[in-house]
Structures are given as structure tokens and as C-alpha cells.
Amino acid sequence: MTESHFTTALLGINPALECLKFLYHRVLRDDYRGLHKLQHYRWSVEYIKIVLKHLPKDTLLLHTQGDVYDNYKYSSDEIEFCEYLQNVNKDLLTIQKSITDMGMRKIIFVNLQRMGLIDRFNHKQEICYIGKTYRNYRYVKITQSGLDFLESKNIFEEQRNLGIALDFVFGGIVQDVLDIINALNPSYLSVSEMMFFVSFLCKDYQDKILTKEVIIEFINEFRSLKARQKVVEDVVNKFCVPKNFDGNKTQKRDFHNWKNEAQTLFDSFDLMALFEYDRQKQRLLLKANINGENIIFKRSNSIKQEYFKQHEVQKDVCFELHHIVPFYYAKDIDALKAIDNWQNLIYIDANSHKIFTLDKNGKKAIRLNFKDKDALLDNLMGDEVVLKYIDNIRYKIVLQERMLKYNKALLGL
Question: I need a labelling partner for 108 at 20 to 30 A (CA). Which of 67, 84, 251, 351 fits?
């Protein structure tokens, strides 16, 4: 299918729908795949714990490099890694199939590093930073975040630590996905909706940052097509075939890899306490209960309306509501419910929301303070984000004390 045919076929489904115009422009961009953070692999919380618990706590573990085939002979300095794999696979027998040497290094270690649960090092024992490509990965070591997750005292602490790790790798969109699902009716996300729309959250489109509200509008439009959603998927599928494009991997389009990435996101969200991935229907939902206790969220729209009512601010297409304390910081069911409250929201501009979403320090800014009218958010470790009144944040000034009190209560300060 040529680009001209793609234009006619996609936009012709319904020329009035903005979601199709967006999807057309997205597919033509080299960054069309959007959020892509984890290698495709199905695992469980127990799987992650097994991989982490067998790593040495205080020293680096040397591993193999390159391709390891059936006739590979481990050298003397690689014996410890060979024993590590054996110990991991013994524990995995009860829950999942075994992992190979190359699978561990090229998938599992990559994912755990991106989650911040391990560090990787080169042949000189120099740390390899996330987001950069290195030729000589040779060592791994569990991080403090990995130890915190491994040593969690209960399910809520475990889910908090896992939530922080997954939000780290997903660029801070976990809370946003929760808000999006809450705002939709019925309340779920399909693989296609994640693939086509949600995975582009916070990216630039037509000189504006895509907010949750815009993404929700796209999804609602897409759902209005009903059975014709399948036509959209088929058109994009037929166009996004690698052999239809010249150039390198970036310049090509690959529908199936793109879809696999969306499914990988759903598999990973399924690890968290509040999400459930229905693989048969290919949908991500919110769980109705945790450990037998019901957890019912208020409708996202009602919380929004309460914020606007209390703060007496007008809606602005360039602003969106942001949860100060994300749900995965909760220590129990009551705290989970308390987080889903208008008093834990602030109305900030899209650029500031993008900082909280993408900046690894900024997105952990969960303690609220004020300097005159400006709001200050910090991560309890010295990193601070300043939100200028009116320009970056809009709220009712007389509610400052109430906002501070609620924030302190959530954080236990």
C-alpha cells in the first residue's frame, strides 16, 4: 500500500474524526511507536523476585557476552554466572519455563535495568547508563531499589516498590493510564487503544503536547466507529509492513512489533495491584478488589468536577489535572482510596505535567509546599519543581492550608 492509498483508505473511514487524522500523522512519523521501554516477555512478580534474589548483594556478577550456543564452553571466570542461571532455573520450575543465558542477558537484565532494579556495567566495571548503548556489557549488580522490592514487608510495600519501578521505566504514565481508564465508559483500554493513542501521551502533536483529555477524546471517537474499528486496524496493518519502506529500522514501519509493544505494556501493568489484563478480550482493566478487599474508585470525571468546583478555576485545553501522590505509594487499601481524591490533585500546564512524567527526579516530586502563591513540589531528596501561579498551576489560594494538610496526611509526615 502506498502513502497515497493509505491516506485515502484511513481518512476515508470517517473524514470528520480527529483521531484518524492524528493516527495518520503519527504513522508517518519516525517516532510512531511512541512508548517502547521493555523487551517483549511475559513474567510475573515472583519471576522478578527469583531473578533478583540470586544476585550477589554486595558484589558485581560477571556474565557472558555475545552468542551462547549449544557447544559453548564457559570459562573459569564465568562459572559463577553459570551457577547463578542454574539456581534461578531451579526456582523457576514451579512457576514458568527456564530462561537461557542469552535470554537472561538480552531480555531480563535489560528490562530490570530499565526498571531501576539492577545496574549493568561494561568490561571495565564502569556503569552503563540507561538510554545509552554499550558494546561490552559484562557485569550486573542489584540496586537499592531492587533490594527494597525484594525485602518488601507486605503486599502493599511490594506493590509500591514495583509500582515505582514500572512507572520509572514507563516514563511516569502509570497514574495517567489509571486516570484514562477511569474516564472511559466502559472502563477499559484495548490493545489497539493503547497502541494507537495512549502510547503517544505527552508527545508533541500539532505544536501542542498531547494531554490525557485529548487522548480520551481520541479513544471515544475511535470507539464511536464500533465494528469499523477493525477496518482502521486492517488499513494501518497493511500500510505498516517493513518491506513497503526503504531505509533503516527507524524509517520502516512494523505493525506487529508495534502491537507486541502494546501487549508488553499490558503484561507489565498486569503485575501491579490495581490492573488486570484480560488476554482473551485483549483489554486492560482496573481490579475490583485486592486480597479480598473491595477497592472502588470514584468516576474520574466526578473527581475533576469537584476540583474545579472547590478551586473555582476555569478549564483550559493547555492544562490538565495531576495526582501529587500516585496510587502506588499507598501502604494499604484506605490510602489507595484516599489518593483518588480531588485534594490530591493540582491543575498544571501540559509542559509541567510532561516534566513530572518524563523527568526521573521530577516525577517523584510528591511533597507539596508553597512560596507565596507559587507551588513547590519536591521528592524528599532535594530535587524541587517550581510551579508559577497562573502560568504553571491554577488553584484557589485560600485552600493552600487544606492542600498542605492533605498532602502531609497522605505521606505520613
Answer: 251
